Amino acid sequence: MKIGIVGFYGKLGKTNYNVIKDSKICSVAFGISRSAPNEGEVFDNIKVYNNIFNTHEECEGVIDFSNRENINSSVNYCLDKNIPLVIGTTGLNSDDEEIILKASNYIPILLSHNTAYGVNVLLDIVNSACKKLYDFDIEIIEKHHNRKEDAPSGTSKLIFNSLKEANPNLYTKFGREGNNSKRNYDEVGFHSVRAGSIISDHDVIFASGEEVITISHRALSDEVFAKGALKALLFLKEKNSGLYDIKDIFL
């Protein structure tokens, strides 16, 4: 399978490239990067473009872990080629999500804020815990590298959604400060750390007056996301149009 990588020079773009390069059944068709100085410049025998519509190489699927500003072009390119698309970009707004939803009527698209297998198991665990620990306070702490632009993380939002499935009364509280920061019932606190080169850490704290349970996931390498994205694209290759979730693959 020949795969286009959007966000080629980014941290995850480079990891996607290495994972695909090492695959026995896939290869990189081209790279897309807004920082590419010249259209069609060559990096390790791969042509890198500013604009995905300037590419000429055969492509059978696209992985986009870039910036929300690329979503429209990635979606329209895949619609034009009638090929699957995996989106791991976070920080999307409602307009971006509407574009993706409409396109999924015609091509298979997987949208996930986290393509790691373990995170998706974590979502099931916290859902189950929330049902049983219904009177515990809940806080979510997420930690990422100092270059991450959006906060809170897409994964922490997924965690909250999983909690809310178990208890529809839950609502979010982003950060705390001042003298009137006492927590309220059914409140889920969100806390974002941006420091150094932390890849992706998420802690879900359940606390009562007598005990504390912390459920954690820590990514030790970006490869876990790239391998999940590649598995997702291979999954989509055999599917009809539709909007898929990473749980459709792993769970």
TrEMBL record:
Its main location: cytoplasm. Keywords: Amino-acid biosynthesis, Cytoplasm, Diaminopimelate biosynthesis, Lysine biosynthesis, NAD, NADP, Oxidoreductase. Residues 1-114 form the Dihydrodipicolinate reductase N-terminal domain. It is found in: Cytoplasm. Pathway: Amino-acid biosynthesis; L-lysine biosynthesis via DAP pathway; (S)-tetrahydrodipicolinate from L-aspartate: step 4/4. Residues 118-249 form the Dihydrodipicolinate reductase C-terminal domain. The active site is at residues 144, 148. Its EC number is 1.17.1.8. NADP(+) binds at residue 34. (S)-2,3,4,5-tetrahydrodipicolinate binds at residues 145, 154-155. GO terms for molecular function: 4-hydroxy-tetrahydrodipicolinate reductase. It catalyses: (S)-2,3,4,5-tetrahydrodipicolinate + NADP(+) + H2O = (2S,4S)-4-hydroxy-2,3,4,5-tetrahydrodipicolinate + NADPH + H(+); (S)-2,3,4,5-tetrahydrodipicolinate + NAD(+) + H2O = (2S,4S)-4-hydroxy-2,3,4,5-tetrahydrodipicolinate + NADH + H(+). NAD(+) binds at residues 7-12, 88-90, 112-115. Homotetramer. Catalyzes the conversion of 4-hydroxy-tetrahydrodipicolinate (HTPA) to tetrahydrodipicolinate. Belongs to the DapB family. This is 4-hydroxy-tetrahydrodipicolinate reductase.
